[in-house]
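Reposting from the mailing list since nobody answered there.

I have sequence plus structure tokens for a pair of proteins and want to know whether others read the tokens the same way I do. The first protein:
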Amino acid sequence: MNRKQIRERVETALQDVENRHWSDREINQFIDDALVEFTRIARYPQVEGIATNAGGSTSLGEASKTATLSVDGKTATLSNFDGSGAVHGYSDDDVIVVSGATPSEYNGPFNILAASTTTVTYQVDFGNAVTDASVSLFRLGPVYTKPSTVAEIISVSLDGRELAVYTESELNAAASSRGGRHFLLESTMGFHPNPFSFVSSTVSNVPKWRDQIGPIEAVVFNNRTSDTFRIYPLPKETRDIYIDKDASNLVFKSIKVRGVPIETGLSTDTSTPVVNSYWHEALVFGALERAWLKDSKVQNVEKSQMYRAKFMEQAVQAQRMEGLSSSGISEGRNQGGFRINRSL
């Protein structure tokens, strides 16, 4: 059904086809509100898009720049960008991938600690003399923005692989789990920490997960509706970054995001809801729920609650049915294989 057909169903149920109590504009808004809520609850339908990095690119990295490397102790500084001291556009906590430096230990991904207008500073674990200070670099995120069409992230994939989803609290807990511990002491009161056997590490061996490098295996964000996420760990090798690391024209990989769409409603009477017609009845129920709550002489809370129950029944059913898996199919190859034979 299109918007006009849904509205006519609602008006018929309200016995108000002449718009004596509810205008077409009001009912259109009720239908839009029901559609938005249905999509949010059922998490259906789903859309896909490509995430963008801090520079606005949909690729895993940005175009490279040149710079001059200098090292003071274990603090590395990049300056003289593109040979003219140009503004680099990087920010604190961005990740840059450096190449071309000698010794080679200065090459790789690094988190920016401080960025001025024309210089970048980051930490290194060594302080060897630099013999080749001319380097190339590009920004690698690590924070990416989800597609503008996605309201809630369901999955993220890279190079055809679905990435794990972590929260910052999970990684912080895992990273700090070795910081210290008590041994347990058994007594008549049960088990409790032994005050004489506390083990505490005086050396910080807690890994800084934001600095970890390796093949990209996960994304990190704290809320389903988060606008951004972080890749983890930072890519270690060129094959983790480029589609074909041996090509003469290197192309960065893209990060694909699948999720619940940002639903804004129907724009015209001929517009059809994004949800399948199988669920259009739910939009009728949702609009009726809202119509009977209108603050007027015809307000009927009892009828509104009845249609609310019908709407929720449809939305929850869609949530269960539309999240398809092979185990949910009961015919053909996916038919259950458990069988009992009884002999008499």
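The second protein, same order (residues first, tokens after):
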Amino acid sequence: AKILSLGNIFSKTLYCLGLYYKYDIKTVISVGGFSAAAATFASILKVGCKLYIHEQNSRMGKLNQITTKFATEVFSSFDDKSRIKDYPVSKEFFATARVRDKVKTVSFFGGSQGAVCINDFALKVAPRLNEMGIKIIHQTGKTDYERVEFAYRELNIQADVFDFSRKIPQKMAKSDFAVSRAGASTLWELCANHLPTFFIPYKHAAADHQYYNAKVLFDKGLCFLKREEELSEDYFFEAINSDIHKISIELISSINPNAISLIVNIILEDSK
């Protein structure tokens, strides 16, 4: 399978190289990953073509490790050497942002595919949250929706339960505290929304990057963090009873809304 993959990358690299010469491509922007490999290698091989890399995570992927030495510029929100440290986030998350004062609603986000670990933890803490008068918003993922939705009905808890939604900015806006995985996009979307978060990283993520993504914020006192095997209800309730107002205010300066413009401006300046 690996040999076939390498052969596929080689053939697609030649295909991309042909396209680059046909349309006289002078700039390529890569975010890494297998699907970007052929186009990235072709940009290195084409004479007069500049490669720019946006590394999304705190732990650099294999493709970016190989190609960074050929890049004109590498952008990363986790690298102090990066000229632009802000992450490209949809303006919706900034537009719906607010400073939180008290936890009245908690959201559980396991990503579009859901996370059984987060779903199970949510159901454990749900009765106590309900007793405290705290509302629940819960994204379950498609495969676990029926089980979780049924469990809330059995607990006689009225929660906003859904499998997938394109209205995540609005769901975040209603929330005062979140429990979430720590993929880079989700992490910075939560920061842009000024939403204090308890991160539970996906333990099988490449190079454990989700844990180290969240640890960057955790070391600054801007989030709560536990591995799946360390999950504790006591820690969770200590978190939601902590000074979330202070965290929410400090999250404002963790990310600026103009990352895309800043990155593009640097690329355009270089092309002059």
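Reply #1 (J.P.):
I read it the same way you do. The longest helix spans residues 2-22.
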